Amino acid sequence: MSKSPRDYVDIIYSIDDRPLTDYPKKLAQYLYNRYSISKNAKLLDIGCGRGEFLKGFIDCGVKGFAVDQSSVAIKYCPEAELRNSDIENEGIPYPDNFFDFVYSKSVIEHFYYPERLVNEMHRVLKPGGLAITLVPSWEYNYRIYFEDYSHRTPFMLDSLRDIQIIHGFENVNVEFFYQLPSTWTG
Predict the structure, then answer these.
(1) Whole-angstrom Cα distance, residue 166 to residue 20?
(2) In terms of pLDDT, which residue wins out, 138 or 130?
(3) Structure pTM?
């Protein structure tokens, strides 16, 4: 008899191993300002994990929604609407054209079929909406990248751009982003 696996977020992102910091709030504030996101915009955080980035966006004034296999975010971000889903197999449980922007950080590389996620992102995003997809740069951090057994599909600049364009996104801009607040301007 096989047991159900334990919750990935609960194990990998336990507070004991990875304490909460102010980084998620700083990143959310930076992206909110950089992309001129309006207050009360509807945000979907895809694969929200503990909900720290979602909380940062909510603190900026957006309406927060999330989808993840885990329910851990309820503990850290109770003001958001969280729905559980195995996105790769079940999709995103929100209606078409519902969100002003969608955000995912370090999620798409966990998919065997990342095109399913991109299709779902495009489906739930309003026409003219904004998608922010952050992925680790595996070619520069390959040892760290492959320490996470759940990484399935590494992306490079061209492949991340191509998958988004092929699945309906327009005006796609892909760039290296250094996760050091001291390097951010604007």
Answers:
(1) 37
(2) 130
(3) 0.91
